[in-house]
Design a protein that fits this description.
The protein is α/β, with parallel strands linked by helices. Helix content is about 25%, strand content about 25%. It contains 9 helices and 15 strands. The strands form 3 sheets. Strands 3, 4, 5, 6, 7, 14 and 15 form a 7-stranded mixed β-sheet that branches. The protein has a 6-stranded parallel β-sheet with strand order 10-9-8-11-12-13, sandwiched between helices. Strands 1-2 form a two-stranded antiparallel sheet. It is globular and about 60 Å long.
């Protein structure tokens, strides 16, 4: 029990952001730490995830996950080391994946913790390529979008945690053409040179619809949407008959203070018989064994690249979150707790 500190730092949301979040919306506070009660484990968090969906939880609106409570610690994916256990099956020294990030020490219900093996993959992989973003990409492409060999695929937000994997998964499984959009010329080069995309463009350099038509003159069969807005409208124009769109995120709209206009060309979905379907990773837990087997194999063989952007220190967690919203990350944005 000597490893248990007196206090733990944790990030609280102290006011609802209006538009883009700012540093003053958050506070880093101290909370007492106690030995775990029966059925619980105390975890020293080593790394945590910041993800786009967390922006929606900062609003006081009903959604598929409850909003963050003001003046309480925020939560999200984290990996850490068990320092004390009062739960069968967990011992001090075990590494676990759980949902109580944004804090140095987490008192976790053991039923909501999963042991992970640091010898099989870096712990951060369980927050990214082998975790929620990876399964989102896998389920969204193969199950929701019904991807098949020979499809042409367009991915928005293609240099992010999910998008970078979607494009690579499609290439590995025989896509005829994979196109990505990203927010900088450097990311565009990365998509083509490192991730194997056939074409990519910087959406800040001109109209998305025009850039997509130039990159996919014969149209696209699948669109994986991480952005929404003008990207979704452009994709609807370029989708071929019986095209499929997986709606995963709309990061372009998360900080809007006014309702975003919908795609103006949605009527095209009728004649083209398009299928536009949302994806929530929690609906696809049944894919987990196949997902891990496939993706771990692709990683081992070198066919799959999983990049991370790592920010050091819990005190920099909100900065990492805001940077992720601005697109400053390549691949998965991770916050690593040092010391």
């Amino acid at each position: 029990m000597s490893q248990i500190p007196a206090v733990s730092r944790e990030w609280h949301l102290i006011r609802r952001p209006q538009g883009w979040p700012v540093a003053e919306d958050f506070a880093l506070r101290e909370a007492p730490v106690a030995a775990p009660a029966p059925g619980r484990i105390l975890v020293r968090n080593l790394q945590m995830s910041v993800d786009p969906y967390m922006r929606g939880r900062m609003n006081d609106v009903k959604s598929y996950v409850p909003p963050f409570r003001l003046d309480h610690p925020m939560d999200g994916g984290a990996v850490g080391e068990v320092v004390a256990s009062a739960a069968e099956g967990f011992e001090a020294g075990d590494h676990v994946l759980h949902g109580l990030g944004w804090r140095e020490y987490a008192d976790v219900d053991a039923a909501h913790a999963t042991k992970v093996d640091a010898s099989l993959a870096p712990l951060s992989a369980y927050l990214g390529v082998l975790g929620m973003p990876g399964l989102t990409a896998y389920a969204g492409l193969f199950e929701v979008a019904s991807f098949k060999e020979g499809d042409s695929v367009f991915v928005s937000g293609a240099a992010g945690a999910v998008g970078s994997l979607v494009g690579q998964f499609a290439k590995i499984k025989g896509a005829a053409r994979v196109i990505g959009s990203a927010g900088s010329d450097g990311k565009v080069e990365l998509l083509k040179d490192k991730y194997g995309f056939d074409a990519a463009f910087n959406y800040k350099n001109g109209p998305v619809a025009q850039a997509l038509k130039e990159a996919a003159p014969e149209g696209i069969d699948v669109y994986f949407d991480n952005v929404g807005g003008d990207h979704l409208e452009a994709a609807i124009s370029s989708l071929n008959v019986h095209g499929r769109a997986t709606l995963c995120g709309a990061i372009a709209q998360y900080n809007n203070t006014e309702p975003a206009p919908g795609p103006r060309n949605l009527a095209l979905a009728i004649g083209k018989r398009l299928r536009l379907q949302g994806v929530l990773v929690g609906d696809h837990a049944g894919l987990q064994p196949q997902f891990v087997e496939d993706v771990a194999g692709w990683l081992r063989s070198g066919r799959l690249v999983a990049d991370e952007t790592v920010v050091e220190g819990i005190e920099n967690a909100t900065g990492a979150f805001l940077g992720m919203l601005r697109g400053e990350n390549t691949g998965k944005m991770i916050v690593s707790f040092t010391g």
